[in-house]
Amino acid sequence: MKGAEDPVLDPRTEPARIRAFSVRPDAARRGLARRLYIECARAAYARGFRDFELMATLPGVPLYAALGFSPIESVALPLVQGVELPLVRMGRRIDYV
C-alpha cells in the first residue's frame, strides 16, 4: 500500500504519468487498454500536458509500444532479498485526441 500522496505535476515542465493499465484476462484483446489510453490522453491534454511517461513491466512493453510509447531506459527496481524487478521507462508525445 502506498504511504504518501503523489506530488502535483507541472505540465509546463513535467510529463503526465500513467501508473498502470490492468484488464481482466477474460476481457483482454478487446481494445480496452487503447480506450483507457485515449481517455488518459484527453484528460492530460486538457490539463496542459503534452508528454506522457510511465514505467512498464517487461510483459507490458509490447502493449505500451503499440500505444506509441518508446523506451527511454531500462532500470531495475530492488525488491526484497536481492530480487530485482526489471522495468522500462517509456514515453510518448500526447497528440490532441
Write structural notes for this entry.
The chain has 97 residues and is of the alpha+beta class. The protein has a single domain, classed as Aminopeptidase (3-Layer(aba) Sandwich), CATH 3.40.630. The chain is 22% helix and 29% strand. The chain has 2 helices and 4 strands, in the order E-H-E-H-E-E. It has helices at residues 32-46, 61-66; strands spanning 16-17, 51-57, 70-78, 84-93. It has a 4-stranded mixed β-sheet. Strand 3 and strand 4 form a beta hairpin. The chain is globular. The termini are far apart. The mean pLDDT is 91.
Brief characterization of the structure:
The chain has helices spanning 32-46, 61-66; strands at residues 16-17, 51-57, 70-78, 84-93. By secondary structure, the chain is α+β, with helices and mostly antiparallel strands. It has one domain: Aminopeptidase, CATH 3.40.630.
